[in-house]
Design a protein that fits this description.
With 386 residues, the protein is an alpha/beta fold. It has a domain at 2-51 and 151-203 and 344-383: FAD/NAD(P)-binding domain (3-Layer(bba) Sandwich), CATH 3.50.50. It is 32% helix and 22% strand. It is built from eleven helices and 18 strands. It has helices at 14-26, 64-83, 102-114, 125-131, 151-164, 194-197, 272-279, 282-290, 292-303, 305-312, 368-383, and strands spanning 7-10, 32-35, 52-53, 87-88, 92-96, 121-123, 139-143, 147-149, 168-170, 185-188, 204-215, 226-229, 242-244, 250-252, 257-258, 324-336, 347-351, 354-359. Strands 5, 6, 7, 11, 12, 13, 14, 15 and 16 form a nine-stranded mixed β-sheet that branches. α1 packs parallel to α5 (151-164) and α9 (292-303) crosses α10 (305-312). It starts with 6 loop residues before the first strand and ends with a helix.
Length: 386
């Protein structure tokens, strides 16, 4: 179908599949092909995450992230109900452990309320103990809407939906030049390869590897739901946090360290091309100079498990080091500008019949259905069909 398709989507992750589904919803019977270079779906970002369905706490009111997260969360859970994908609304506490973090906690509450997050409230130590008896902190923000889900199962359900609507999902179909595709419209949702398929955009992917830590029983019983730190607003990574996943397992992390391989997940992996691109990026060196203390802390916790456990005990003082081990890893596609700025919002770029999803950072998994709908809006608006 590719040659005469109404739409070709490059990349079979959550955003790409949601885009294909949204197009078929608007244009029943259209020819849609999803092209995925891997032999299976969910090999990279869409299948390597903690499974958290975010509520919209962190994002500045009025930002695209905030709007798409709120819209996407509700759409995702409705889709999960429709398709029988299990999820659990566990709730989250964002915990301040020092006086210095209290103003930032207050700002998060302001953002959450401005974004329409339901039920969010500031809680004291006694109230925190009722929700998470083993967590210690001065104050916390309780976000009852936060949920967990298996995003691999979501992706599989989206792919089934696309096929049922008449679209095709083609595996082992690597696209090196989007110009070679003859479909009427092309959407590129290439994740870790987005900059290579959007040549000339001026942006470069800086891959950050995140290693998850596994918390085994009995320490796993110290966490009921989700426990997060108060993030540094200047840095788009959250630091040590705990998630009781949909299968009941407790994961901590991930951390965030530069990766010398975009799609290899061993702790020490190097791809010569990826390493060259990273090390010759002016933006990376500017970023490293600006945040070297934060980056050094991430690297130390990545190398020394004892350092990671020490940070984890700020929130869970009863955590037993013997119950913590290294787990799976994921690699995040973070767009980096030449001045060292981490592009923090969703970024779309159109070139003729091709629309590039250049940057789709967290909460892209939560917001995938809303992003897909927004991408289709853009496609149809350009052609005058909206």
């Amino acid at each position: 179908m590719i040659g005469n398709a109404d739409l070709a989507v490059v990349g079979g992750g959550l955003v790409g599949m949601a885009t294909a589904r949204a197009f078929l919803e608007r244009r029943p019977g259209a020819g849609v092909s999803v092209l995925e270079k891997e032999p299976e779906l969910g090999r990279h970002q869409s299948g390597r995450n903690s499974g958290v369905v975010h509520a919209g706490v962190y994002y500045e009111a009025g930002s695209l992230k905030a709007a798409l997260c709120r819209e996407g969360r509700d759409a995702l859970l409705a889709f999960a109900d429709e398709r029988g994908v299990p999820y659990a609304v566990r709730g989250k506490v964002i915990v301040a452990t020092s006086e210095a973090e209290l103003p930032r906690l207050g700002e998060l509450r302001r953002r959450a309320q401005a974004n329409g997050v339901r039920g969010v409230r500031t809680i004291n130590e006694a109230e925190l103990a009722e929700i998470e008896p083993h967590v210690r902190g001065l104050l916390a923000l309780h976000v009852p809407e936060t949920a967990v889900i298996d995003f691999r199962a979501v992706l599989a359900a989206l792919a089934d939906d696309v096929r049922e609507r008449g679209g095709e999902v083609l595996l082992r179909e690597e696209v090196r030049r989007v110009e070679d595709l003859s479909a009427q419209r092309v959407v590129v949702c290439a994740g870790l390869q987005a900059d290579r398929l959007s040549r000339g955009s001026g942006y470069r992917i800086a891959p950050f590897r995140g290693d998850f830590l596994l918390v085994a029983p009995p320490s796993a019983e110290l966490v009921r739901g989700l426990v997060y730190p108060v993030p540094n607003p200047a840095f788009p990574f959250l630091g040590v946090h705990f998630t009781r996943r949909i299968d009941g397992a407790v994961w901590a992390g991930p951390n965030a360290v530069p990766s010398f391989a975009r799609e290899r997940y061993r702790r020490v992996s190097v791809d010569p091309r990826d390493a060259f691109d990273l090390l010759t990026s002016p933006g990376l060196w500017r970023l490293a100079h600006r945040y070297w203390r934060t980056g050094a802390g991430e690297v130390v916790r990545d190398i020394f498990l004892s350092a990671a456990v020490r940070e984890m005990r700020r929130y869970l003082p009863d955590l037993d080091r013997r119950d913590v081990s290294f787990g799976p890893a994921g690699i995040r596609a973070q767009v980096l500008a030449r001045d060292g700025t981490l592009v923090d919002d969703f970024l779309l770029e159109r070139r003729g019949r091709v629309l590039h999803v250049v940057n789709a950072p967290s909460p892209a998994a939560t917001a995938c259905l809303a992003i897909g709908s927004r991408v289709v809006d853009e496609l149809l608006r350009e052609s005058g069909d909206l």
